[in-house]
Amino acid sequence: MRDLNLIAPWVRRFLVEYLVIERNLSLNTQKSYRDTLSLLLPFIAKREKVAIDKLQIEHLSTESVREFFQNLRNERNCSTRTCNQRLACIHGLAQFIAWKSPENVSWAGQVRAIPFKNTTKTVIPYLEKSEINAIIDSPDTKTRQGIRDHAVLLFLYNTGARASEVVDLTVGDLDLKYSKSVKILGKGNKLRHCPLWKHTIATLEIIVLGRSPKEKLFLNRRGHSLTRFGIYILVEKYWGLAKLNCPSLAEKNVSPHVIRHTTAVHLLRSGVDINTIRAWLGHVSLDTTNIYAEVDLEMKSKALALCRVNGSDKDLKRRRSCWKEKPGLMNYLRSL
């Protein structure tokens, strides 16, 4: 008879049954949860002095979990944001066990009561138009590799796609003739269509000419698909070259995700409504997209100008004096 108190069978079911079948979470999320448990279980086993396969559910106590996060911060220098991400995995495991094993509801409630820590909101980085143009124009388009690199940078800016989404694209995902768009499979297997600019289409037509629809869209020198790491290296390379012509880039750290933020901010500046930007970037919630309305200083300045009070300083002084000359209203307010 199987021991339902052993943690190992529950971990296997959580990763295979819950994350994949029930939740259909993305591969990257599955890997993140796997990595969390790969760190947690050896730590608990060492703390309790038992083999990992012999760990019981009660070994995963609130005290051991708190010690685990203390270890992450002290030994691995993990940020609060990273620790919160790891805690979400542990909460999910506890919830799954409670659903399938009601006798463990009390234990699960204690584990899930471990709170997330507050994090400081960081300012979202983005590039000005001149800065992103300097990066996109850096590749030598007289060479085959330069044309591909230019296409990758232009595509990132046009679509605001994540690096993981770009590497999975195939030639068949493009429709350069009719809808002039691309199909992008995003987080949670959510499919979206993104329109392409004329310049992007012209550049992509060069690199897809004569290729099979099943081939990966962006290939490396060996003819294999570009990896996420490869795209990060590509962006970093041309960021370094662009600094020579655009000194302001030296003060910024540029990555594929910064280009994604740049796309969102520039769409917002162009007057595109926030819901369209949400669909463009593949966000599930508008709350995620709304952050771009908070970071753009140019739009804030325009809004402030629209709200500026008309009239001279004399008018303002006159209004203040009129207010002071009517104490009856103030007495009324104080009496409430």
Outline the secondary-structure elements:
Blueprint: H1 7-22, H2 27-48, H3 62-75, H4 80-100, H5 105-112, H6 129-136, H7 144-159, H8 163-167, E1 174-175, E2 181-185, E3 191-195, H9 198-208, H10 228-242, H11 256-269, H12 274-281, H13 286-295, H14 297-306, H15 313-324, H16 327-335
Antiparallel strand pairs: 1-2, 2-3
Helix pairs in contact: 1-2, 4-5, 6-10, 7-9, 7-11, 11-13, 12-13
General description of the model:
There is one protein chain. The protein is mainly α and 336 residues long. The chain has two domains: 7-112, Orthogonal Bundle (DNA polymerase, domain 1), CATH 1.10.150; 129-303, Intergrase catalytic core (hpI Integrase, Chain A, Orthogonal Bundle), CATH 1.10.443. It is 59% helix and 4% strand. It has 16 helices and three strands. A hairpin with a 5-residue loop joins strand 1 (174-175) and strand 2. The longest helix is centred in the first third of the chain and has 22 residues, at 27-48.
Q: What would the keywords be for this entry?
A:
336 residues, mainly alpha, DNA polymerase, domain 1, hpI Integrase, Chain A, 2 domains, 16 helices
Task: Work out the number of β strands.
Answer: 3
Q: How would you characterize the largest beta sheet?
A: 3 strands, antiparallel
* Adjacency order of strands in the biggest sheet: 1-2-3
| N to C succession of SSEs | HHHHHHHHEEEHHHHHHHH
How does CATH name the architecture of the largest domain? Orthogonal Bundle
Averaged pLDDT: 87
- The gross shape turns out to be globular
Name of the top-level CATH class of the largest domain: Mainly Alpha
CATH level-4 homologous superfamily of the largest domain: Intergrase catalytic core
Q: Helical stretch count?
A: 16
Strand content: under 5%
The CATH topology of the largest domain is hpI Integrase, Chain A
Helix proportion: 55-70%
Rounded radius of gyration (Å): 27 Å
Uncertain ranges: none
Number of separate structural domains: 2
Distance from N terminus to C terminus (CA atoms, Å) equals: 73 Å
Classification by helices and strands: mainly alpha
